[in-house]
Amino acid sequence: MWKSNKAADLLNKRQKIDKEIDNIQKSCNHPTKSLKSIRERVDSNTTVLRWVCDECFLPIEYPSDKEQENYFKQ
After folding, report:
1. Does the reported pTM lie above 0.90?
2. What is the DSSP string of 26-52?
C-alpha cells in the first residue's frame, strides 16, 4: 500500500506543477525566442524543431523552411 500512496502523491505533485507551468506560460509575453529541437510529445522520443520562448519554454511557432535549413547548417 505504501507504493501506491507514494505514486498517488507523486502524481498529485506532478499535476500541481503542470498547472503552475501552464499558468506561467499563459501569462508570459514571450519576449524572446530561440530555435530548439524539442520532443514532439511528452510520451514521444521523436524530436521536432520549434521556436520556443526563452522565458517560459513554450513552443510558440513553427520555423520556416529557410530557418530550418540555417539551423541544420550550424
Report:
1. no
2. HH-----EEEEEEESSTT---EEEEEE
